[in-house]
Amino acid sequence: MPTAAKIILDTDPGGDDSVALLWLLSLVQQGFAELIAVTTAAGNVSAHRTFASASQLLGLLGFAAVPLGRSQGLDTPQADASHIHGADGMGNLAQTLPPPPHSWQTAPTSVDLLVQAIAAHPQEITIVAIAPFTNLAQAEQQHPGILQQAREVVLMAGAVQCPGNVTPTAEFNVWFDPPAAQTVLQSGAQVVVIPLDVTRRLIFTEAMAQAATEAAPTTSLAEFIVSLSRFMRQTALAYRETSGTPGFLIHDAATIAYLFYPELFHFRRVNLQVETLGQWTKGQTVLDDRHGPKATANAWLATEVDTDNFFACLLEDLKTLLALNCDREA
Ligand code: BDR
Ligand code: CA
């Protein structure tokens, strides 16, 4: 039997981060992946809050023993995305979940967790990064070459040929810390980028939330999925994220789909750079599409996703997660 993939999830929950984490936990419980650690970053909401949210979800599903990293330094003062994800980053549902089992005071830093895990398992760790890339960049700056020792670094990042979702040209994870995104792209690691061009097609509907949870609708997990989806549908409509289609954009879940169902995607080998200086274009991801040899390529870029099969896989794995965890509350 092939060994399970060793994964570190770097996240800033976030409604779509929450779906990505739940999907990953299902795959871990099914034996397809080993969750080495979760590392948290400031982004959608404050660093303290993303830490608490990740901890609450891990605790809910019986993963309190998974190491959880906290962001180094304090919260960044710049704008967050709480208008999309709720003040707590989870659709204002944090108070409906059990309290976080991890303690911020005693938690290791996300950077230390990343560095130690990669160094302990060279070429074995897959980093799934679905937040601003501050932690990854700090790890690379403090230990040059460390990201090259990861097996793969999978990013939800950038808006390449479509408009951004924070500015006309920038996607949130890159815009929040452009130098960090550029550091990761320039690191020489095996980088896979799944941009907004692809993820904005991933609209999780009310019918899907109902279908995923119908077998155990009164469990905390089912109620969380249904309520979070409802909240995220409302803010997506209010901020015109889905062009009027009612649904929850689950950008970050694309990274999990790529790792476990890669046949759902098409990719190109590209050279991708981040605008770190622009007055109007800060955080833009710039694709060098000129003809010529691709010797300077630094990433695989997702260009297409099979949405029907994406959602078929997600629903099956969420149903399995519910089935595997319904006696936890019995
Ligand atoms: C990305 O930005 C965040 O708001 C989401 O969680 C996702 O990681 C989408 O642009
Ligand atoms: Ca995110």
Write up this protein.
There is one protein chain. With 330 residues, the protein is an alpha/beta fold. Helices cover 38% and strands 16% of the residues. The protein has helices at residues 15-29, 47-60, 82-85, 110-120, 134-142, 172-176, 178-185, 196-199, 206-213, 220-238, 253-260, 307-325; strands spanning 5-11, 33-40, 68-69, 125-129, 152-156, 191-194, 203-204, 248-249, 265-270, 272-274, 285-287, 299-305. The chain has an 8-stranded mixed beta sheet with strand order 3-2-1-4-5-6-12-9, with helices on both faces. Strands 7-8 form a two-stranded antiparallel ribbon. Strands 10-11 form a two-stranded antiparallel sheet. α5 (134-142) crosses α7. The radius of gyration is 18 Å and the shape is globular. The relative contact order is 0.16. The structure holds beta-D-ribofuranose and calcium ion. Beta-D-ribofuranose binds next to α1 and α6. Calcium ion binds next to α1.
